[in-house]
Amino acid sequence: MAQGDASAHAAGSRFLGLFFIIVAALFIGLMPNAAKLAYGEGANPIAVLVIRAVVAVTGLAVFLRMRGNMLSIPRPFVRKTALAGIAMLFSAGGGMSAVAYIDVSLASVLFFTFPFFVAAVNHFRGLTRLGRAEVICMILAFLGLALALGVSLENANLTGIALALVSSLGIAVTVLATTDTSIALGAVRANLHMTLWAGAYFILLAVLGPLTGAMQPMRFPANAVGWGWVLAAGVSFTLGYLFFFIAATILGATKASVLSILEPIMMIAFAVILVGETLSPLQALGVTLVFGSLIAFDLVPKRA
């Protein structure tokens, strides 16, 4: 009976983790589309990055205080969340810079090499052992993503590719550091401090960047509609990463990272719904391949 209860609990935890990953993918899929609509109303990327960090820190801090939880964290985790914040800065900076040299679709696909980095680190740490079947599923999901995003190598540029991979490495470090902190302190506190550090770095960049001539000053939306989309980007960023790290504490960072390939598929869905884009037959095939590969990945027994 005890064994049956344990199996039922494990199955329940697995489905809860999958539920959180899907919810995270929905919110993170909404985020870039909301940002794109905010850009159309006069905002620029650095302003959106700063505002979404302020929204996230405020929302998470208020939530913790309403529940009577502490906001501070032990000193050893301060270093880890500071590292995660720096990694988030490199991830955002690399991604924003890469699209100046290569197509957005290629930059997006290269960004989603981060599950391979996370899986490799956790494999060598002995936390999650990957077999041949899991690696094949990951590669097929990655190829499906390339088809879904309509990647072309015509405008490939080594600088752009390097910057996109810096972005991927940045988010991989963020995932690894914040997952460890989430397991110890809870996902909300871990996300609060990671975002607090990232927000401080973004504000510093927004102040120093224009002074050095490296970037334009922050430009905010010109109307209420634009502010609405900026706030939507902030809320979706907050909830997307929060649910992702909750899922990662349940499923493990490797599995959560691989399943997060659903995020760009959700971005495509929101682009169709909100922006009016259409899918080609090849893109539809790619979406199908992503879903099929991730389902197969989830069904392959994992070796911890």
Automatic annotation (TrEMBL):
Keywords: Membrane, Transmembrane, Transmembrane helix. SUPFAM superfamilies: Multidrug resistance efflux transporter EmrE. Residues 16-148, 159-295 form the EamA domain. InterPro entries: EamA_dom, EmrE-like. The chain crosses the membrane at residues 15-34, 46-65, 77-94, 100-121, 133-152, 158-178, 190-209, 229-251, 258-276, 282-300. This is DMT family transporter. It comes from Albidovulum litorale.
